[in-house]
Amino acid sequence: MKILVTGATGTVGGLVARQLSGSGHQLVALIRDPSKADLPADITIVEGDLTDASAVRRALDGTDRAFLNMADDNGAVFADAAAESGLGHTVLLSSFTAVTELPSGPANIITARHQAGEQALMRAGVPSTSLRAAGFDYNILMWVAGAADGVVRAPNADVKLPVVDPADIAAAAVAVLTATDPKPGAYSITGPQRLSVRDQVAIINETLHRSYTVQEISQAEAATAAFPQGTPDFVTTSVLETMGPGAAVLVPSGDVQTLTGKPARPFRAWVADNANAIA
Predict the structure, then answer these.
(1) Contact 170/12 with Cβ under 8 angstroms?
(2) What are the φ/ψ torsions at residue 28 (nearest 5 degrees)?
(3) By C-alpha distance, which of 173, 105, 125, 82 is closest to 115?
(4) Would you tell me the crossing angle of helices 219-226 and 233-241 to the nearest 10 degrees?
């Protein structure tokens, strides 16, 4: 079976590619800049951009299934090319925001992006599975990175969210991509428990023998601390809403285990694996 991976130079796409490596399938990665690719030798690189229809058609030639990490067009070009090629199945990296009402509603660009991606595949008639991921475990780095003085300053410090290890998202994607008969649908891909920033920092302290404290800051302070100067307000608001009270309606699901046969990894395991990334 021939499988295409997009976004293979990113976090989840890279994990998907590496988890598929050695599986015996023919693997292809569509990459904008091959010089940035550091992938296993059994993955063929096709140079091109997901918004370039001719490049997407080349990558899809003879392909049976694909992992889609959307580009700036929210998957529109890919959806049309996949329908044209008769692609058998697509696994879409989506987000819980596609079905969760955040304060900005459709004006939240993360919500709009993932709703558009799911709808593009549906309209094109491409069989697909949407992995609606919770916030990633590594989002804590947004706040820990500024804690050189030992104080983690973050907004919504006590809002509990079922953050997920990107490796579990990738494992779920690989399970669907390699299934005998993948079924279209959507899955809620979460971690095993709801944790606040304060909870996560406590786990970091215990696991890595650190002594961070937590200080809650305002949304405006968070926008200044975590985003480059000049970032538009609608961007900072959209991102911060995914970590705020509106996102707290999301609960842990068993869908990682349903798809992979293994329970979702706890935040503590991610911390232990990524100790070098934590200040």
Answers:
(1) yes
(2) -130, 140
(3) 105
(4) 110
Nearest CA to 162 among 187, 135, 142? Answer: 135
Under a CB-based contact definition with an 8 Å cutoff, are residues 191 and 267 in contact? yes
- Rounded distance between C-alpha atoms, residue 168 and residue 161, angstroms: 16
Per-residue model confidence as pLDDT tens digits over 176-197: 999 999 989 999 999 999 999 9
Q: How many Å apart are CA 185 and CA 170, to the nearest integer?
A: 17
Backbone angles phi, psi at 47, to 5 degrees: -80, 130
DSSP class of residue 202 equals: H
Cβ distance 161 to 102 under 8 Å? no
Partnered with residue 131 across adjacent β-strands are 93, 187
Q: What is the pLDDT of residues 228-253, one digit of tens each?
A: 999 999 999 999 999 999 999 999 99
Burial class (CB in 10 A: 0-12, 13-18, 19+), 79: buried
**CB hemisphere CA count around 273 (13 angstroms):** 11
**Distance between CA 98 and CA 106 in Å, rounded?**
10
Q: CB of 167 within 8 A of CB of 11? A: no
